[in-house]
Specification:
mainly beta; 12-stranded antiparallel β-barrel; two-stranded antiparallel ribbon; 59% strand; elongated
Length: 387
């Protein structure tokens, strides 16, 4: 899937240009082909736009150095009842690990031609992750791809429970409530992929790319109703032998994959209070119509020892823990509502530009007695030059 998306993003302008060339003179050689592709993208940038509102810079290339501050907040919730283990009591334990990464800092580069480009950011502090981005924007449309990977070996865990103590209060329930860090010998690995696109109904006077990749310049204030789509995929994985205790507390789940597809409509506005300055805000509620997830469950000798109430302490040597694949389930969740929200500030000075923008997304899922949600936000600051 990932490779297919990248190929499509790279080849779309080439296919379109090839079609256009059949109606005119064909340039010769590779140099002619590249030159022709550039001319086609240039024409697409200004086609149908009002020059009083949108200007295409003479210098088409953009080289951008950026810094990115981001945070991923993954919360899982697992409910374990005594009845699940053959008991007729009302005892239960709710286990809520929260994988909230430190606020992470990235530094990277983005290179593009008229809004078609690629960027890569390296982690310089925080979640030990990496970010790969692709972008393709035109006058009335845009497509963006963001891939993020990170790991965490000490999630914060909230524990809530109800139980009966035969010695202290055999008839009255006792309640447990605690919170703290839970050290894992092998980290939880999380990978996310988000592909989103949009169509502007006022692309003649409003430019999304002016606010987010600076491939054109917004000269006057304007807004637009917009339609959009989003594809999201995540892979959460912690299925190693030394995590047998964590897997047991997660109702035997050791890995989760999720796919979501959403469509929505919203509004975006570009405010130009003075020459060179642009303020953008966008909000798009989205209906998630496709919500599929897979979970992998595991048995373990640790679990069997706990349920058998062996006198031998199974916790003595975690290197002896072993997990065994038990089952895999493929489920489709209900329709849900997400939101895509962004704000941006841009300043232009000659061939230089400065930009800062922020984005927030929320992705929920639910599987029987295990549920969760992922908040993902990032703030990007960039300085670029046109060549």
């Amino acid at each position: 899937m990932r490779k297919a998306i990248i190929v499509l993003l790279c080849l779309t302008p080439i296919f379109s240009f090839a079609t256009e060339m059949t109606n005119g003179d064909n340039p010769k050689g590779v140099k002619g082909l590249v030159s022709g592709i550039g001319r086609f993208i240039d024409s697409m940038t200004v086609r149908g736009v009002d020059p009083r509102y949108i200007e295409a810079p003479q210098k088409p290339w953009q080289i951008i150095a950026n810094g990115n501050i981001s945070q991923s907040d993954l919360k899982l919730s697992s409910l374990m009842n005594a009845q699940d283990f053959g008991s007729d009591t009302e005892e239960y334990l709710k286990w809520e690990p929260r994988i909230k990464t430190d606020i992470s800092t990235y530094a990277g580069l983005w290179v593009g031609y008229r809004g078609y480009g690629i960027g890569y950011s390296w982690n310089v502090g925080g979640d030990k992750g990496r970010i790969l981005t692709f972008g393709a924007t035109g006058g009335s449309y845009g497509v963006n791809l963001r891939i993020h990977a990170f790991e965490n070996n000490e999630p914060e865990v909230n524990i809530f429970g109800k139980y009966y103590d035969e010695e202290e209060s055999p008839d009255e329930p006792m309640y447990l409530s605690d919170k703290g860090g839970y050290l894992l010998m092998s980290p939880i690995n999380v990978r996310t992929l988000m592909l989103d696109g949009y169509y502007l109904f006022n692309g003649k006077r409003f430019s999304y790319s002016a606010a987010y990749d600076q491939s054109v310049i917004q000269k006057r204030s304007a807004g637009s109703v917009m339609a959009g789509f989003m594809y999201y995929h995540s892979h959460i994985k912690y299925d190693t032998d030394v995590n047998a205790d964590f897997i047991f507390m997660m109702n035997d789940i050791g890995a989760i994959k999720q796919w979501q597809a959403s469509v929505g409509a919203g509004y975006a506005y570009n405010l130009v209070p003075c020459k060179g300055l642009l303020i953008n805000a966008m909000a798009m509620p989205m209906l998630t119509f496709y919500n599929r997830y897979k979970v992998w469950r595991y048995d373990s000798n640790l679990k069997q020892g706990i349920l058998a109430e062996d006198d031998e302490d199974i916790y003595d040597d975690l290197l002896e823990w072993k997990i065994y694949p038990e089952e895999k389930s493929d489920n489709h969740g209900k329709m849900t509502v997400n939101i895509d929200a962004r704000v941006s500030l841009t300043y232009q000075y000659r061939q230089f530009f400065f930009n800062v923008y922020g984005q927030l997304n929320r992705f929920p899922y639910k599987d029987k007695k295990v549920k969760g949600r992922l908040y993902d936000w990032h703030v990007n600051a960039a300085v670029g030059i046109r060549l």
